[in-house]
């Protein structure tokens, strides 16, 4: 019995579709594929086609890309989070995003093709899929709005409030690129946040 699998399904489902039945959760557990990861490992490389929705059981991953020769972090995921390279997954095209393990840990892969077949049989898995997409859309909109309307200090304070695990566990260089600031700016912002 994989207790981490059950915990991961419950944490991920509860954040998006808490009323999902035990029967549907069990079916989800049956189709997930366990994948252990090692810190520094590239789990998805640029140019590959993403074929899975990823449930993070243990550890932290980041999605990133290169722009003008610089490494830019797009997203962090840790225990209870769901990660995916949406455009590649839905359009079956090579991704420009890469996924890197920031810690040793365990992921559970949900094969997209298998999920599509299951959604025809299990309506609750169809609802979960929709909720995952809705959640992803909201997160993207929130991030875009933060870049448009918030100062560097406000973006950092929001990250600290909403995702303290990222601030505790991710390297500062990755946090800085995620917040669209230089490491020097992040140092000043952090100093201000802790002194203010």
Report on the structure:
The protein has 196 residues and is α+β, with helices and mostly antiparallel strands. The protein has two domains: 3-149, Jelly Rolls; 150-196. Helices cover 51% and strands 22% of the residues. The chain has helices spanning 3-14, 22-31, 86-91, 112-119, 123-149, 152-162, 164-169, 172-178, 183-195; strands at residues 33-37, 42-44, 52-58, 61-67, 70-77, 82-83, 98-101, 105-111. The strands form two sheets. Strands 1-8-3-6 form a four-stranded antiparallel β-sheet. Strand 4 (61-67) and strand 5 form a beta hairpin.
- Quickly give the CATH architecture of the largest domain: Sandwich
Instruction: Give a count of the beta strands, DSSP E runs of length 2 or more.
Output: 8
CATH homologous superfamily (4th level) name of the largest domain = Jelly Rolls
Put simply, the count of helices is 9
Strand numbers in spatial order across the main sheet: 1-8-3-6
How many domains comprise the coordinates? 2
In terms of quaternary structure, the protein is single chain
Contiguous runs where pLDDT drops below 50 for at least 5 residues: none
Task: Please identify the top-level CATH class of the largest domain.
Answer: Mainly Beta
What average pLDDT do the residues reach? 95
Strand content: 15-25%
Query: Could you say what the CATH topology of the largest domain is called?
Result: Jelly Rolls
Determine Rg (CA atoms, Å): 17 Å
For the termini, the CA-CA separation is 48 Å
Question: What structural category characterises the helix and strand content?
Answer: alpha+beta
């Amino acid at each position: 019995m994989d207790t981490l699998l059950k915990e991961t399904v419950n944490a991920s489902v509860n954040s998006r579709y808490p009323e999902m039945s035990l029967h549907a959760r069990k079916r989800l557990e049956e189709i997930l594929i366990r994948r252990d990861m090692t810190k520094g490992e590239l789990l998805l490389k640029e140019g590959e086609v993403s074929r899975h929705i990823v449930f993070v059981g243990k550890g932290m991953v980041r999605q990133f890309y290169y722009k003008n020769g610089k490494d830019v972090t797009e997203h962090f995921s840790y225990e209870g989070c769901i990660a995916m390279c949406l455009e590649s997954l839905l359009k079956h095209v090579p991704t420009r995003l890469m996924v890197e393990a920031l810690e040793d840990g365990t992921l559970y892969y949900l094969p997209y093709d298998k999920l599509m077949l299951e959604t025809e049989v299990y309506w609750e898995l169809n609802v979960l899929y929709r909720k995952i997409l809705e959640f992803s859309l909201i997160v993207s909109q929130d991030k875009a709005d933060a870049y448009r309307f918030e100062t560097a200090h406000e973006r950092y304070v929001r990250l600290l409030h909403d995702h303290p695990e990222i601030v505790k566990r991710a390297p500062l260089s990755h946090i800085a690129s995620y917040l669209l600031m230089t490491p020097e700016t992040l140092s000043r912002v952090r100093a201000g946040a802790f002194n203010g």
